Amino acid sequence: MDDHDRDIEQHGERRRVRADRHGSGERHERGHEVVAVEPDWDTLVISSAEHQTTRAILDELRASGRNPAVGRAVAGYFADAGIAVNTVDAVALVVRDAAAARAFFQLDGAVERVGTDVARRWLDDLGEQSARGAFCAALTLFRIVGTIPEAVP
C-alpha cells in the first residue's frame, strides 16, 4: 500500500489514515489539514426505565458494529500515521424524537437480534416517552483535526 493511499479503517487492528484528499492521489505539502469526525458508540445513552433491557439492546448494537470506540481512537490513528494532532473536540448529538432515534441508531435491528418480547415492548416505551416529550438519547461525536507535518508521496 502506498503512503498516499492510507485511510481510516473502523475494524480490527488495521489503522490507516488517508492522506490524499477525496481519493485524488494528489500530494499534500507540509501544513495540510486533515479532519475526521467519528461517533463513539460506547457513549450512546437512551432514556428508559428498563435499564437491563436498554443495556442488552445497546450491547447488541455495539457488538454488531465494526469498531464501536472508533471516535476516541482516531487521535491515536492520526498520531500512528505521523499526523500531528492539533485538536480533539467532543460534542453530544442529542435526539429527542424516538422515531428519529430508532432510524439513526438502527435500534430496530438490535431489538430483533435480542429477540425478546421485552425488547420489542421497549421500542413501544420509547414511542410513549416521545409522545409525552420525555424521550432523550445522546451519542458522543469526536472531531479530530491534524496536520500532515511533511509532504506525503
Quick tags:
three-stranded antiparallel beta sheet, 153 residues, 36% helix, 24% strand, single chain, alpha+beta, disordered N terminus
Walk me through what this model shows.
- Residues 1-16 and 18-28 have low confidence and may be disordered.
- The chain has helices at residues 51-63, 70-80, 98-104, 107-114, 117-132; strands at 33-46, 84-95, 137-147.
- The protein is α+β, with helices and mostly antiparallel strands and 153 residues long.
- A 3-stranded antiparallel beta sheet has the order 1-3-2.
- The protein is 36% helix and 24% strand.
For the termini, the CA-CA separation is 12 Å
Biggest sheet: strands side by side, in what order?
Answer: 1-3-2
| Helical segment count | 5
Global structural class = alpha+beta
Largest sheet: 3 strands, antiparallel
Concise summary:
Helices cover 36% and strands 24% of the residues. With 153 residues, the chain is α+β, with helices and mostly antiparallel strands.
Please write out the topology:
Elements: E1 33-46, H1 51-63, H2 70-80, E2 84-95, H3 98-104, H4 107-114, H5 117-132, E3 137-147
Antiparallel strand pairs: 1-3, 2-3
Helix pairs in contact: 1-4
